[in-house]
Amino acid sequence: MSQDPVRELQDLKAVHEFYTALLEKALRHPVPAPNEVKNPNPAPEMLLETIGTLQRWLSLLDLAITPPMVRDALQEAKSQEVAAALLRYYIFKNWHSALDRDKTDFVCTNLYRNPAPETGRKPPADPVAIRRPITEQGAQFEPELNLILGSLEMLPLPEQFAHLLREFDFIQEEVDDIAHFDQLMDSGISDRVRGIKESLGNTFYHPRALATLSAYNNFFGNRFDELFRHAAEQIKAFAAKVQEQGGSLMSRVDGDVIVKHLTEVEESHIMKQEYGRAKEQFRNVSRLKKAVDSRRSGRGGEPAAPPGGPQMPSMTRPAPRVKEPKPLAPESLADSPALSGGSAIEDARTQSTLESIRSFVRAAQANWNIVPIRNGNIALSAAEAEAFRADTVGEKSFRGDYATLLMQSVAILARMTTELEDYNSKRDSAYLWKPHADALTYLIAAAGRVLSNAAGVLAVAEQRGLVDKAKALNASLDRVKAQTALVAKALQS
What is the mean pLDDT of residues 142-148? Predict the structure, then answer.
C-alpha cells in the first residue's frame, strides 16, 4: 500500500511534532533534530528524498516512544487530525514491529471512541450499542477507517483471519459473564486476545481487523472499568464497616492483608496513573478483593452482587452433574443439524471451530493433517481431511451426511480438547471452572447426538459394501468416544 506523497509528508511532519512534544515533556528539555528534519524541503523534485529523511528520523524516535505514551497523549490532545496522521504513519510503514502493532491498536481505539463530527457516528457510550456483537460494531466503524486511509482498494480478508475476528463475539460473551474484577484478572482473557492479535500478523493492519479490534477494546475497557470500580467500592465499604464496629486499621482481613490496605485504595487515582504502574495496582486491588470475599465467606456472608452479572459466591465448588446424552433418532444431517441441542451459543462455537479447521485444511500447502488449535494441535486422518476439502456440505445424499459427520466429529473433538485444558487449569479456582464445565457437559450431549446420527450412515455404508468408509468413520467416532470418556471422568472427579 502507498499513499499520496504530499499528504505523506504532512503526516510525517505531524507525527514528528507529536513525538517531539512527548519526548520534551518526558525529558524536560528540547529535543535536538537535524535541520533537514526541522525544516523539510517540500519542493516537488525533493519530495521523495525529504520523505525518506523524515521516515528514517521517525524510526529512531519510535524506539523512544512507548505505546502507553501514545495512548495517554492522544487522550489528552483529543485531536482527530493527529490520530489520523499517526494511523496512516503506522499502517503505511515498510515494516512493523510489535510496538507498532500496540501503538496502532491504541490510535485506532482512540478514533473509535472519538468519532469526527462529519462521520455522523455517535460515541459508543450507549449500553445497548456496546452489547451488540463486536463484529457488528466493527463493521459500522470500518468505513471511517477506509476514509482516513484515503479509500484505497484493500485486498479481501482471508477466511482464516475472518474466523479469528469472529472469535471476539464469543470472547465478548465470556467477558459479559464475568461477575467480579478478580475473576476478570484471573481469566487469562487479555493473554488470549493478545495471542489473537499476534496471530493476525500483518493482517492486523487491515481496516476490518482494526475496526473489529477497536470495538472489542472499547467494550472490554468499559467492562473492566465497571468491575474495577465496583471492586474498589466493595473493598472500601468493608473497611469502613470494620472501623464502624470498633476494628483497628491493623486488623487482619486475610493472609497478610490488613484493614489499612483496604482504606488506601483510591480508584480514581489508579485510573489516572501511567499504564505500567496502574497494572500492578490493578493486581493489588484483585488481591484485596479476594481477601474481602474470603473474610465475608468465612463469616457466613457473601459479597454484594456486582453490576452486569449474577452473583457468583466464592466457595468450594460442588462436583458438576454430568447428564448422559439423550440418543436422538437417526436423521439426514442435510435436513437438520446434528449438533442442534438447545444451546445456540455452544452450537455456534462448534460450528465456528469446524469452519476454522476447514479453512486451514483448504489453504494449507503442507502439513494439512496437523491443524493448530488453541493450546495445541489436532491430527486429521486422510478421510477427515478429505471431508473438510469436499464440497458436499448440505447435500442430501450419503456422501453429504458422511462428510458432515466426519467434520462434526473433528470439531467436537477439538472443542473438547481446548475446553478440557481450560477446565483443568481452572478447576481449583472459586468459579472460573464453571463456564468450561458447562461447555464440556453440553459437548458430551452433542457427541451423543453425532454418534446417534452416525448409526444410520454406517448402516448405509455396510449395505453398499463401502468397507473403507465405514472403517474411517468408526475410527473418527472412536476418538470422540475416548475423548468423551476422558471429559466425563474429569467432570466427575
Answer: 91
Question: Quick check: 88 and 148 in contact, CB under 8 A?
Answer: yes
Which pLDDT score is estimated for 29? 94
pLDDT at 83 over 90: yes
> What angle, rounded to 10 degrees, do the helices at 344-363 and 433-463 form?
60
pLDDT tens digits, 213-223: 999 999 998 88
Q: Which residue has the higher pLDDT, 400 or 257?
A: 400
Q: Give the pLDDT of residue 425.
A: 85
333 pLDDT above the threshold of 50: no
Identity of residue 403: A
Element (H, E) at 254: strand 252-254
- Taking the C-alpha atoms of residue 80 and residue 88, their distance in angstroms, rounded to an integer, is 12
Distance CA 104, CA 93 (A): 11
Contact 83, 91 (CB under 8 A): no
Residue with cell string 464440556: 440
Q: φ and ψ at 371, to 5 degrees?
A: -100, 125
Give the tens place of pLDDT for each residue, 383-425: 998 888 887 766 778 888 899 999 999 999 999 999 998 888 8
- CA distances (Å), origin 247, targets 240, 242, 251, 259, 429: 9, 5, 7, 9, 30
> How far is residue 381's CA from residue 387's CA, in Å, rounded to a whole number?
10
Strand, helix or coil at 318?
coil
**Mean pLDDT, residues 38-46:** 86
Q: Give 413: exposed, middle or buried? Use CB within 10 Å, 0-12, 13-18, 19+.
A: buried
DSSP tally for the chain: helices H, then strands E: 20, 4
Query: Average pLDDT for residues 126-155, to the nearest whole number?
Result: 81
> At a CB cut-off of 8 Å and minimum separation 6, what does 185 contact?
282, 283, 286
Residue type, 21: A
Q: How far is CA 142 from CA 64, 86, 115, 211, in A?
A: 30, 17, 12, 5
Q: What is the mean pLDDT of residues 266-290?
A: 60
DSSP state letters, 67-120: HHHHHHHHHHH--HHHHHHHHHHHHT-SS--HHHHHHHHHHHHHHHHS--GGG-
Q: What integer is the mean pLDDT of 145-161?
A: 81
Which contacts of 267-273 are long-range, i.e. CB under 8 A and separated by 24 or more positions? 267/228, 267/229, 267/232, 267/233, 270/228, 270/232, 271/225, 271/228
What is the SS3 assignment for 332?
Answer: coil
Q: Are 413 and 378 in contact (CB under 8 A)?
A: yes
